[in-house]
Amino acid sequence: MEIDAIVADSAITAEGKLYLQGGAWYLVSAPALPIRIPRIGLGISIRVAWTDTNQPHNFDVRLQDADGHILALGDAPPGSGPEDGKIRRIGSDFNVGRPAYLQPGDDQLIPLAMNIDGLVFEAPGRYEFVISIDGEDVKRLPMRIVETGPAGPTVG
User: Fold this and answer.
1) CA distance linking residue 15 with residue 111, whole number of Å
2) Tens digits of residue pLDDT in 137-146
3) Which of 10, 31, 53, 142 is geometrically suited to a Cys-Cys bond with 21, CB 3.0 to 4.6 A?
4) Looking at the predicted structure, is the pLDDT value of residue 19 above 70?
5) Which residues of 139-152 are buried (b: 16+ CB within 10 A; e: fewer)?
6) Bridge-based pairing state of the strands 74-75 and 86-87
7) Using alpha carbons only, how large is the chain's radius of gyration in Å?
8) Is 152's pLDDT higher than 60?
9) What is the residue-wise DSSP string for the chain?
10) What is the rounded average pLDDT for all residues in the chain?
């Protein structure tokens, strides 16, 4: 399977299409750290090959730092399992069928939108969202946090 993905200010899907607001950025300039980013959107398009239809698959997204440490994406619901109460991966199972109009050999696209609110970055450096399909890392979306001093925050 192939994945196209982009970091944005916000992402949604509607009627089988992916809509992005403020897409294609990687740099966050912060006047001071830590910095809380109100929302980070991920626009994801999974291309499912004809031969990969009618079978179960799994995808997940994680955020990691330059050393490969997996960072928290948010708070887990009370009693949901993680000892520290944090979510470190977001994902789901999926199974794509073959509609009657699909011709043998045709791929299908699955548009996915994910918004993560209130991420806090404690230190400057390189971070990346890693997207996995069936346990294999297939896409990395890098971003960099820089501390600029009192000039004010920018995302771009």
Assistant:
1) 10
2) 999 999 999 9
3) 10
4) yes
5) bebebebeeeeeee
6) antiparallel
7) 17
8) no
9) -EEEEEEESEEEEETTEEEEES-S--EEEESSSSEEEEEEEEEEEEEE-GGGSSS-EEEEEEEEETT-PEEP-EEPPTTSS-TTSEE--EEEEE-----TTPPTT--EEEEEEEEEEEEEE-S-EEEEEEEEETTEEEEEEEEEEEE--TT--EE-
10) 93
Distances (CA, A) of 8 to 25, 31, 34, 42, 121: 7, 21, 20, 6, 17
Q: Is 90 exceeded by the pLDDT of residue 78?
A: no
Please choose, from the candidates 1, 147, 3, 120, the residue with its C-alpha nearest in 3D space to the C-alpha of residue 63. Answer: 120
Query: What are the Cα distances from residue 52, in Å, to 27, 44, 109, 123?
Result: 35, 18, 12, 40
Q: How much is the pTM?
A: 0.90
Does the pLDDT value for residue 149 go beyond 90?
Answer: no
Place of tokens 């955020």: 63
Q: Look at residue 49 and tell me whether its pLDDT is greater than 60.
A: yes
